[in-house]
Description:
Helix content of chain A is 63%, strand content 0%. Chain A has 173 residues and is an all-alpha fold. The radius of gyration of chain A is 18 Å and the shape is elongated.
Amino acid sequence: MVRAALASPRRIGKGPALYAAYVPAVTVVVASLLSALPIVSTSGWYPDFGFLAFISWRLLRSDPWPAWWAAPLGFINDLFTGYPIGLSIALWSATMLALDLIDRRTMWRDYWIEWVLAAVLLAIDEWLQWRLAAVVGARVPFTMALPPIAIAICVFPFSAWLVSRIDAWRLGR
Amino acid sequence: MATARPGWSRRAQYGLFFSFLAVVAGIIFGLILLVLSMVAPKTFEGVRGAALDVTGPVTSSLHAVTATVTGLVSGAGDYWDAASQNGELKRENRAMLRRMVEARAIAQENHQLKAALQLREHTPAAVASGRIVGSSFNSTRRFAILSVGTSDGVRVGMPVRSPDGLVGRIIDAGSLASRVLLVSDRANIVPARLLRGGIPVISQGRGDGTVDVRPLEVGRNPFKRGDIIITSGTGGLYPPLVPIARIVKLDDDGAVAVPLADPANTSFAIVEPPFEPLAVAADQPSAQPDTP
């Protein structure tokens, strides 16, 4: 009785899922593919799902994928979302580097710090998109980029929760 | 790359260093591609088209599903009141109204198809007609995904219209799907004129589903609420006399207008060849940089 209560809820024989090492990258690609959803919107207020999934994984674990995978993953995101090609490649690689540097500096990590980091990264992402759109002739007031930033920041906790569930599943916990 | 030093293992240290180099290389590679796609957008036409071919058919089929579901849901909302008023006839009502919703949807589609066919009679040179199945809902740019591609004869630069009005122009074309730069995108500038009086104006998207219209001649604001803007045919890309937008709000030197062809409700979009291909071809080297 006592032993049963103290035993871990893990079942015997339950280990990491098959191809567990590739699950994070696959979920990021799937998130990028969400832009193929048949949503016809007149305002581009939906978050950049690929980047959300990317930073959710990277903030949860320091090694969800080899660091150089950021470039091909970003390329896939650029292709499917219609961003100028190279935007996500550069931004996602830079994100890997920046978060590694931040990991060395931060003394502790909690949800609030992660959320702030994610908010900063998401704001940089939207700002870059806005800036590059201005370069190619689509200059809109920056206030128009604020609602998508706010929405993306609010969606991040949900994305982080989802990613942590997927992580638990892939590791068989 | 997480910790400063992975231990005394030389192998681990080198691995860390090389992964650092790989990430820096990724950043540089991305920046080079980014500059390329800014200054020479045609470089990536092929891969962009291929990506559209991967997602286009999926989006089209999902669009069919969601269109059906939203049709059923809104239909259910319509008859909820009637059903609650009379308990006895509820079930009968429901069955009948379900049939009616189906019939209504078919009738509406018929109506739209007829409208599209009539338009094709007026413009015999239509290249293809397709559905608007998706959009760039996570970007400040305004693009839409159209369910026809190069296998139907669609080429980059062709104007797209619907029975209601001008939709935009093709900027990426895969063989099964293509991407449309909507008139509400900031980079889409359409030479136009006022239907009432024929005053030449310029229409430029605002990025939020509406367009800015400005008169070419500086002076008195010629717009009134409810005015219709039509294309003028200047520049040779868009055909003349296609309605673009209706003015909803005046500001100090122009007005804000709402496009008549709402991409969310436009079932059929028609791709046409450029109005004067020779003029467009002559402008090509100078007019191209505004596409991404």
